[in-house]
Amino acid sequence: MRGWIQGAWTVVSNGYLVGFVQGRIWQGNSKAVCVPGLNCYSCPGAWGACPIGSLQAVLATREIKFPLYVTGFLLAFGALFGRFVCGFLCPFGWVQDLLYKIPSKKIRTFKYDRLLRYLKYVVLAVLVILLPLLVKNAAGVGLPWFCKWVCPSGTLFAGIPLLLANPTLRAVVGFIFSWKMALLILIMGLSVFIYRPFCKYLCPLGATYALFNKASFYRLKLNESACTNCGECKRACNMGVDPTKAPDDMECIRCGDCVKNCPTKALTAGFFTGRRKIQPKDSVEGSEQIEIEIEE
Amino acid sequence: MSAGRRALPLILLALGAGFLVLGIFNGEIAVVLSRAANICLECIGIG
Known about the structure:
Number of helices of chain A: 16
Radius of gyration of chain B: 17 Å
Number of strands of chain A: 2
Largest interface: A-B, 68 and 38 residues
Largest sheet of chain B: none
Shape of chain A: globular
Oligomer: heterodimer
Number of helices of chain B: 2
Largest sheet of chain A: 2 strands, antiparallel
Mean pLDDT of chain B: 90
Low-confidence stretches of chain B: none
Distance between the termini of chain B: 50 Å
Order of helices and strands of chain B: HH
Radius of gyration of chain A: 21 Å
Helix content of chain B: 55-70%
Strand content of chain A: under 5%
Shape of chain B: elongated
Strand order of the largest sheet of chain A: 1-2
Order of helices and strands of chain A: HHHHHHHHHHHHHHEHHE
Number of domains of chain B: 1
Number of domains of chain A: 2
């Protein structure tokens, strides 16, 4: 079901099909609105703007000191969904999910796995915020460093289709495109063996939404009285999270695999707005029927 | 869960809405539109 939602969202948010044929992009006013996921605004089909690209664009200007508009989108999406966006509404996340379905030996964790997850916060701070803000040319304009040197979503959804359909752009391809293609191939290759390597280690948008996981409306909740500590949820989690210890872990992308695999239905995911009572349908056979506020 | 913790998503959402409105009045919408409505050469690996 999640795969269908991801696919549908990718198609709907990149539905300007004429752009793919003619090698150009949609230029209407909807491009001023940020979409929740990492969806390059130079993708020929994109109707909206990538929040990370927009953030860099505003920071790179001479006039604007603080990016209120894009920060507003990030705060709103973060408060509503947290990393649910990563799990359901990110086209590049979907691509990685599909690649992970290819039968192969899977690497669930390795020595520096946890340490490397902090790298995405460094990418956010340095490539997305500091460099576009501080490194300016003579005219006072900066560059979108993350888009230029890293973003594999831009290469896959914008660079490749535009270059295939537009001979003028093809004529000026150089080293940076080769570098970005190499990075894209590396990330896509790793995605066959490691679940979502880009989301885990590099994505600045995932890093941003991770900060909201403890404070978003969409949450994961654990009914401790129903949990038998069987460990099924931890085994089901491809992001390496133990929902019984930290249902609001910053690495949780709210994919719902733990909820689906919990034999006692102790885990629930959804929009929680405040006090919630355990209803009889949430309880397991033989457990006490009580009405309490669920604590984390 | 404390009342403050329960109110946090609502506070963040309201803050986001406020920032959005202030950003529009600050002229940022034009910056985003002009950037997003033209092919970003850096994004596709050319610029």
